[in-house]
Amino acid sequence: MTQAIFLNVTTTAPADVPTPVPSAESIAATAEAYAHTHRDVNGGWLRPAVFGAMDGLVSNFALMAGVVGGNVGHQAIVLTGLAGLAAGAFSMAAGEYTSVASQAELVQAELEIERIELRRNPAEELAELAQLYVKRGVEPRLAFEVAQQLTADPEQALEVHAREELGIDPEDLPSPLLAAGSSFLAFGLGALLPLLPYLLGASSLLPSLGLALAGLFGCGAVVSRVTARSWWFSGFRQLALGGSAAAITFLLGHLIGAQVG
Description:
disordered N terminus; 0% strand; mainly alpha
């Protein structure tokens, strides 16, 4: 009922009659009725996990394929796969932690600059925020009033300026530890997939090839969760890229092995 009233008020009022301002309860009810969710676009754990698994699968399978192409023994293949898994997982975790931590430190530095400016030049910062709303089509007087209300509290003022000027949410920054842990575990699982048949006694690359190709398609399909592509397009794209990397590495290993041997 509240929703209908709100919609009627905002769409059917005569042109020569001022449109009544809906109540806060009416606005909240309408917003709740039409609420919808979005996928995670800030990274969080999903991005490092998905790309960590994909990286582990492609890099370790390509590494093992190159060694197999060099005609080495079963023990050397297993040792290579285990070394690639461990080294890659630690490298991914360290790189992801450093990247996310550095980004967070940069954000904190920029927030501190904004905090100092809000304290030293509150009038200028207020005008700057109001001007941002004016550029978006808000009437100047209303833009100034909105800016005043939003920046009445110092902490809220900092958050608003961070969102509007820097495009970030200070309360929703990615965690370096979560990103590093996700990358480490995901890379390890991805790298383990092509190695598993050899750990179970396989002497041919074919079982490892089958698992790796299935994993590549699966990882690509999962990537569609964080992109606008269809699952089958992402799956086949990753299958083609990962398969090509493994084939080229196998060929290089075969050529180099023949020369060294």
